[in-house]
Structure formats: structure tokens, C-alpha cells
């Protein structure tokens, strides 16, 4: 049976800002020791300082999940600092706006490399350790409702990459279940972060609309009527990492104000 997460260790990628920062703060509030990873060293160091100021334990690593040696360092740092690894939250992701006929191969490679390939190999590296340690490991992948539906045609490759995250979540969940390791996903909808600000700005460049106008149109498509924030996603991650979800694996839970009902 899974235990309380207090004193357990979680890695959170892309923890320097936005949803990843909120997940790191939440898992620390839950009592976990957290390893924070981001390309932006200064940002992730500030989040670690914030956690320590609140009485939690955190280390910050400035690294790029695209690089195998950096992914190795991520796992080794968790083990050398906290001597165990219980959970991995694959949150780091990138977004780019272009209509389907304007996408080029460089665009495809960049989005797929970070969102799909690096996420897969982070899972693989953590799984090897979790299977060996027999410690009921948990992996939570931050996908998107864009992986379940064509939420817009302005980011076709992002949609493809998030569908890949859902496919790997289901496949790895089936594989890892026999070892007591659970793999689930969260599908955020429209969440207030700088990634979403960039999306509004870039779509506005194509449509000629002001970002504020796009924002209003988007809110009108959300049944609950407003965008979520990082803490809304973090609460679901907390549940999937924690023991109350012990009978769930291979799932993809939406945090989207009711946009999707499947
Ligand atoms: N904001 C939304 O509305 C929304 C909706 C659905 C899904 N998501 C997903 O949630 C996750 C977080 O999104 P966000 O809005 O907080 O984005 P964000 O851009 O605010 O933050 C992403 C973080 O990931 C880091 N990162 C990017 N590439 C990296 C790499 N190669 N190595 C290490 N770190 C890297 C960035 O430096 C940044 O700190 C992403 O996977 C995103 O696709 C966001």
C-alpha cells in the first residue's frame, strides 16, 4: 500500500515559472522534498529559495531536458541529495504558433523534441530507477486538452506532441503497473501563464486581434467562465502523486473548467 508523501522526493521539470512552479510549491506543502529543474537557472533558484523560506527542502538544477547527460544529472542529484526518488512530474514544455501549412521541419523538431522525446526519456530514466527500487514510484506527465482535441489550429505540432504524451502515458502505465509504478497525465485547458500570454500575442499577429480580445473569446468557450491558474493544475498533480489515487494508472485528468467532458 502506498504511504503518505511526507519525506518523499519528487522531481519537477520546468519548475522555474508558471504551472511547474505551482506544482513544486504544492508538492512541498504536501511534505515532499523537491528537485526543481529548468533551463532558466535564476528562476528555478528563486523557486527553491521560496520553498526553503517556507520551511521546505528543495534543490534547483539549471539544465536542459533535451540532453541525455542533463537528464542523468537530474536523477543523480535527486539520489545524492535526498537518497531516494518517489515521483517525477514531467511539466517542461514548449509552444509555438503557426498555421498547419506554415509549419516547417525545424518547428516540428523543436516542439516534438522537448514535449514528446525529452518527456519520454525522462520517464524512461526515472522508471528504471523506480522499478529497481520497488518504491511505488509515480510519474505524472503534463499533457494538454490539445492532446485530446484540436483545441485550435494555430498550434498543430503542439497538439501532435501532447497526443504523444498521452500515448506514452498509457503505454508506460501498462508496462510499469506490474512493478507497482503508476503513470498518469493531467490535461490543463487554458491556464494563466506566460506561455498563454505568448499564444494570445502570436495568434493576434495572425488574426489582427488584440490579445485582450482573444482572451475574452477564449473565456467565453470555457463552461466555468474563467481561466485556471497553476494551483488548479497542481492540486490534481498532488492527488495523482499521493496515495488517494493508488488505484489509478494510465489516466488523463482534465483541468480545464469543463471544456472537455472525456
Ligand atoms: N498554460 C497553459 O494554458 C497550458 C495548457 C495546457 C498545457 N500546458 C502545459 O503545461 C506545462 C507548463 O506550461 P506553462 O504554461 O507553465 O509554461 P511556461 O512557458 O510558463 O513554463 C515552462 C517552463 O519549462 C521550462 N523549459 C522549457 N523547455 C525546457 C527544457 N528543454 N529543459 C528544461 N526546462 C525547460 C521553461 O524554461 C519554463 O520555465 C507545459 O508542458 C505546457 O505545454 C500549459
Automatic annotation (TrEMBL):
Iron is among the record's keywords: no
InterPro entries per record: NAD(P)-bd_dom_sf, Sc_DH/Rdtase_CS, SDR_fam
Coiled coil, from the record: none
Gene3D superfamilies: NAD(P)-binding Rossmann-like Domain
Tree of life domain: Bacteria
Keyword Oxidoreductase (UniProt): yes
Keywords on record: Oxidoreductase
Record Pfam families: adh_short_C2
NCBIfam families documented for this protein: PRK07231.1
Family label: Belongs to the short-chain dehydrogenases/reductases (SDR) family.
Protein name as annotated: Beta-ketoacyl-ACP reductase
Organism whose genome encodes this protein: Dictyobacter halimunensis
Amino acid at each position: 500500500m502506498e504511504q503518505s508523501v511526507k519525506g518523499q522526493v519528487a522531481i519537477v521539470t520546468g519548475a522555474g515559472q508558471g504551472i511547474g512552479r505551482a506544482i513544486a510549491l504544492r508538492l512541498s506543502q504536501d511534505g515532499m522534498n523537491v528537485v526543481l529543474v529548468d533551463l532558466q537557472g535564476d528562476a528555478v533558484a528563486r523557486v527553491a529559495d521560496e520553498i526553503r523560506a517556507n520551511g521546505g527542502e528543495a534543490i534547483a538544477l539549471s539544465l536542459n531536458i533535451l540532453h541525455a547527460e542533463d537528464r542523468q544529472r537530474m536523477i543523480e542529484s535527486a539520489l545524492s541529495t535526498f537518497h531516494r526518488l518517489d515521483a517525477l512530474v514531467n511539466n517542461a514544455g514548449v509552444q509555438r504558433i503557426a498555421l498547419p501549412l506554415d509549419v516547417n521541419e525545424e518547428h516540428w523538431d523543436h516542439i516534438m523534441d522537448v514535449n514528446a522525446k525529452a518527456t519520454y526519456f525522462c520517464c524512461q530514466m526515472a522508471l528504471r530507477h523506480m522499478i529497481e527500487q520497488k518504491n511505488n514510484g509515480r510519474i505524472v506527465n503534463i499533457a494538454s486538452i490539445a492532446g485530446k482535441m484540436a483545441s485550435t489550429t494555430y498550434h498543430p505540432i503542439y497538439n501532435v506532441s501532447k497526443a504523444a504524451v498521452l500515448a506514452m502515458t498509457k503505454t508506460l502505465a501498462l508496462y510499469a503497473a506490474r512493478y507497482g509504478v503508476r503513470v498518469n497525465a493531467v490535461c490543463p485547458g487554458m491556464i494563466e501563464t506566460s506561455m498563454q500570454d505568448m499564444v494570445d500575442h502570436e495568434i493576434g499577429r495572425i488574426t489582427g486581434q488584440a490579445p485582450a480580445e482573444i482572451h475574452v473569446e477564449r473565456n467565453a468557450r470555457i463552461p466555468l467562465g474563467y481561466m485556471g491558474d497553476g494551483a488548479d493544475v497542481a492540486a490534481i498533480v498532488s492527488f495523482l502523486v499521493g496515495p488517494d489515487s493508488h488505484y489509478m494508472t494510465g489516466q488523463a485528468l482534465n483541468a480545464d473548467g469543463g471544456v472537455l467532458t472525456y
